Amino acid sequence: MKLKVIGGGLAGSEAAWQAAERGVEVVLYEMRPSLTTDAHRTDKLAELVCSNSLGSNLPNRASGLLKAELRKLGSLLIDCADASALPAGGALAVDREMFSERVEKKLISHPNITIFRQEIGEIPESPAILATGPLTSQALSEQLKIFTGENHLYFFDAIAPIVDYDSVNFDIAFRADRYVYDKVGEGDYINCPLDKNDYETFLKALITADRFPLREFEIEIEGGVDAGNDTYFQRCQPVEVLASRGDRALTFWPMRPVGLVDPKTGRRPFAVVQLRQDTLAGDLYNLVGFQTNLTFSEQRRVFRMIPGLENAKFERFGQMHRNAFLSSPKMLDANLAFRKRPGLFVAGQLAGTEGYAGNIACGLVAGVNAAHYLLGKPPLQLPVTTMIGALIHYITHANPDDFQPMKAMFGLLPQTDQSQRLKKIERYEYYSQRALTDLAQYLEVNALV
Ligand SMILES: Cc1cc2nc3c(=O)[nH]c(=O)nc-3n(C[C@H](O)[C@H](O)[C@H](O)COP(=O)(O)OP(=O)(O)OC[C@H]3O[C@@H](n4cnc5c(N)ncnc54)[C@H](O)[C@@H]3O)c2cc1C
């Protein structure tokens, strides 16, 4: 019994592992390095293309709950992420190279997995999982358009720049984690403080800086970028687009100063740019939330106006990319298979889950379900009170008219009279405990072998 998995990114790697662990013979196709995407930089499986953070690890945060569930379900990628973790406060940030290497090593050494480095340009007739991601190759995209009978929906995403640690000016910048006031000078994050004058000068330069023109395929949707911010990947908007929403927009995110005190003034700065460690060696740091479409020379000019980054050495500039996803509620059943072709599954961003951990979760569910389909077993349908169950339910049942990729959030979980009476933080704790209890009960009844 063979299963083809197309795409060795986050979802495809997890899906291949889950199916192989259940005794299915998996053939995994990854097109890199012979053909690459605009965002990937290596030939490694499970490459993290932008931030090195998989989001919160705290169980009373949506993303933390998602990961707690993934651990209980035996996710390979979360296991590899935990083993490659870097200091990042309550978040799970990883050394990206170490993470991908671990995943690749595990997949290569699995006796049920064969890996081919080649592009698949046709939709397979035999059982398969499509996990080709937001940057699905042109040939397969064309075939998907024909197969689904409607166009992909294109939108945009952007990568944040990375700077050399040694080029940060620590006479101005300071280390601190948000809300940890007794350890200013020691935290995981580097903070570049701006006063009101610095901020206004920076804002003006940012808004008026030159941007890359959009390429033909990126303007495919009506009106392209000028049609409004909805055309961008919702959670990852370019900093210059956020900036143009209002004079103070950046001080709410990503330049919010709350919970930070500049040790040189003893006061909260007017605005802050945060830098987060990007590699285990601690030599590279990314500008948190500074995804951008400015030209490279403008990035150098404008971002060097940030106090502490006057001499910043840019190891990678920010960039903007196409993102593609299917109208899943129209086409997929609750198990992530095409309604019109049982046995053909979709996983990851192409199916409409958002965020690294969300795509890993989607890959896990698709991998288990494809294996169960081949083995004649009932599908994995997690309770909608769990974060993964709610996420998969959403992408397969949402209103298709305005469907957008969805990340883990507590708003997806069903409310009760009891939860509505609770304060926000207590409510989240309640949701989290309920999810983990319901997941444990589900697994007791439905052994995941
Ligand atoms: C530029 C960019 C930045 C992003 N930044 C973040 C971020 O910071 N944080 C976050 O949580 N999420 C981010 N995302 C969203 C998303 O979480 C990631 O894209 C994630 O990697 C998606 O997982 P995936 O498995 O669906 O796709 P991918 O990880 O992209 O994997 C798809 C794989 O399929 C391969 N492939 C494509 N077509 C073919 C084919 N025809 N044949 C064979 N192989 C093929 C690709 O080479 C790739 O390896 C970003 C997305 C983009 C595009």
Distinctive features:
single chain, 449 residues, alpha+beta, FAD/NAD(P)-binding domain, Elongation Factor Tu (Ef-tu), domain 3, 2 domains, 6-stranded antiparallel β-sheet, 33% helix, globular
Molecular structure report:
The chain is of the alpha+beta class and 449 residues long. The chain folds into 2 domains: 2-152 and 326-445, FAD/NAD(P)-binding domain (3-Layer(bba) Sandwich), CATH 3.50.50; 158-322, Elongation Factor Tu (Ef-tu), domain 3, CATH 2.40.30. Helix content is 33%, strand content 16%. The chain contains 14 helices and 17 strands. The protein has helices at 10-21, 62-72, 76-83, 96-108, 138-148, 196-208, 239-243, 249-252, 296-303, 328-331, 356-375, 387-397, 417-421, 424-445, and strands at 2-6, 25-29, 53-56, 85-86, 91-94, 113-116, 128-130, 153-159, 162-164, 174-175, 190-194, 271-277, 284-287, 314-316, 319-325, 337-338, 341-346. The strands form 4 sheets. Strands 6-2-1-7-17-16 form a 6-stranded mixed beta sheet, covered by helices on one side. Strand 16 and strand 17 form a beta hairpin. Helix 1 (10-21) packs parallel to helix 11. The two termini are 16 Å apart. Residues 216-235 have low confidence and may be disordered. Residues 6-12, 29-32, 37, 39-40, 49-51, 119-120, 131-137, 140, 157, 159, 236, 321, 323, 348-350, 355-356, 359 line the site of flavin-adenine dinucleotide (FAD).
